[in-house]
Amino acid sequence: MSKGYFEGVGDNKFDPDRGMTRGEFVTVLGRIQKIDKSKYQNSKFSDVKQGEFYAPYVNWASETGIVNGVGNDKFNPNDVMTREQMAVIMARYLKVAGVTVQNGGNSEFKDSAKISSWAKDAVEELAKAKIVNGMEDGTFSPKTPFTRAQVAQVLYNIYK
């Protein structure tokens, strides 16, 4: 929060255990990149309305190929992001941002069969780079919400 990437949730609280929404996540990524919000006013998503805090960031992420939406011209910006959705968005973001990662981590998870086919490569890439870790029980838990604290940890792992 000290760098201004995250906004609190009011009353000087961070709410670390709350799931991060898709709109909040791309907003954080756009703030890290210090995008010029004025360049990203037009949305291809019917549910991303101009004037919403996340709108220019979603538009930027869409234009740069970081996000594709969920189908039917929708992005679902207020939906809580799953762990596998985060992995896909983050893997694309790293490429766009030109961030080079080192391999060496473990990418084996007890529940790897539960990771959606569209997310498997991204989860493996981020795990090998030690950007994401599994849960304490050795699973990745791909369908569970990715919390604000976990997003902060992932960003720390990348930019430390």
Automatic annotation (TrEMBL):
EC number(s) from the headed UniProt entry: 3.2.1.91
Xref: InterPro entries: Cell_Envelope_Struct_Comp, SLH_dom
Entry GO MF terms: cellulose 1,4-beta-cellobiosidase activity
Domain SLH: 41-104, 106-160
Keyword annotations from UniProtKB, A to Z: Glycosidase, Hydrolase
Pfam families: SLH
PANTHER family in the record: OUTER MEMBRANE PROTEIN ALPHA-RELATED
The name this protein goes by in its record: Exoglucanase XynX
